[in-house]
Amino acid sequence: MRKRILVVEDTPDLLRNMAQSFSIEGYEVMKASDGEEALEWLQNIVPDVIIIDLIMPRMDGISLIECIKKNLRLREVPIIVFSVKNEAREKVLEMGVVKFISKPTSVENMVNAVLEVV
Amino acid sequence: MDTKGFRGSASIPSISMMIILAIATLVLLGWEFDIEVLKRPIPGLVAMNPLTSLLLIFTSLAYIIWSPLKSQRGGVSTAISIIAVLISVYHLLSLFYNFQFKIDQVLYADELTTDFEGTRINRMATNTALNFIVVNIALILIKNRKSKYIRLAQALSVVIITLVIFAIVGYIFKVPEYFGILKYLPMAIHTAICFLLLAIAILMIEPSKGLMKQFTSPYSGSAISKILIPAAIFIPFSFAYLHIWLYWNKVFSTEFSLSIATVCFILVFVTLIYFNANALNKRDIEKMKVAHRLKIANFQLKVSKEETLSLNLQLKDSLQKEKELVAMKNKFIAIASHEFKTPLSSIAFATGFLRKYRKEISHLELDEKLNEVDNQLEHMNYLLNDVLSIGKTEAGKVQVSPTKIEIQLFFDSLLKELTDEINPTHRITLSMNCIRPYIYQDIRMIRVITVNLLTNAIKFSPGQSEIRLNVTCTSDSLRFEVIDNGIGIPSEEMQDLFTSFHRSSNALAIAGTGLGLSIVKKTIDLLKGTIEVESEINKGTIFTVTLPLFSNA
Asked: N or C terminus: fewer CB in 10 A for chain A?
């Protein structure tokens, strides 16, 4: 069965390209452009990994991570944070995020990071 | 306090005591070898009793033993003084109660029985004995350095001086009572002088303490007293003597000579008082001058202090501005790095994607990715332009240059551009109400204002779809409203709304540099227009811009 990956990113072309990359790599990809959209997906599906941007409208990355970590069904899902907000690295790692990847990064980096986690 | 001036006076007691010792010794020698002039310097007056000279030797020795090292040998010195006191007390008692054993008749008893003054045997005078008691008590007291004892010792010295002067003056004035009813009073003239020296010596042992302090201090009173005290002793004495001399020589009647003495008295005292007043006044005037100068100096000091204070304030102010500038720069660097990194990460991911997966995607998709890269590059360019334009407007490098604007055409193309560029999430509804088809204004600046306000309206109303733009123009003004149904602006953020790099507390999750509204405000200021804001949290915001128009290009 294909691994499922949820990508939460508010920059549309970056979201599209990430999704496409993971599809080619053989993942089943779900896209969300902010925290609320991500929660809609998570109501029905438990993915194998979640990639989250921090700065987003409506519901930002930190609030989303809090929601996930409070949910018994979802709390064990590995989360990778992908953001420009380097100063938040320590905080999100303390919250239980497995990896912090600083923007910008290469496609290889991102793909390898996901491979290590799932 | 200046003690240097009184160091010399410390030797006055020693010298006095030495003189007393010498006189008393000479008198004893006089008794021993029967030298009349030593016993009795002025013929016809009483001789110094041998006991008196012995007690004088005791008293002066008591001081001489103690004085060189002060604190040491105080016990021996005190013992000698006590012996002198005891002898004197016994003598006084023997005088009053007629004891058989007369202590003043022990030494040179044979000589004394032949030494008559008139019909009277030479005896030690009552006041002499009293003086010995007082002087030795004073000496014992002064060795204890407490100021109250010093004061008491000095007061006792003054008593002695009074008694002695009384005796000396009596001799000089040939007081008849000394030869009559008060014949037991007179002490020998050199005894009197010795007591005077003793009293002065005791006064000068601690010249800067006790009563003497008032005469030896560096202040005006002491300076004047140094002149007045000798005068106070010498003047009454000399006038009284003048009076009595005139009386003796029968130049004038006693009443007239007394009148002359009195007049002289008055004259000299008034003169002294005059000089005293003069000296005190001079000092006061000097003091007032100094006080005045001090006041001026104080004032100058105060002025310079105020100047320093205001300079400090200015410095503080510029330091504060400098700090704000640095803070703003840091804020800018933080925001700019975030803002630039977002498009950069898109570009990096897109180019990496193309390199890795170009064989797995179609040509159409490849073109799409390249377009995305172009778009992101363009976005970065806009960001840079924003930063540059803020820099330019702040440096005052922007000039207003009005051109003819076809108003309907301008807004139509602007909206098309915006809806094409930004994703089609929002629809902008334009309503125009203009009295003529064209206006004269700086087209670049109007573009900057409207584009910024409209992109803000889109950015800050996520999940909403409608933005309204109402344009009204009259013959001399252009007014437009940008209305959204977005997140709104908190009222506490209103005052910083147009500050560069300031970002509203509820807008932090939405990308932005905090430059847009700052650019808008600065541009409107350049055009001498106004901007108003109405906003309600989670209901929406209305920006109203009014710009004056030029009559032609």
From this structure: N
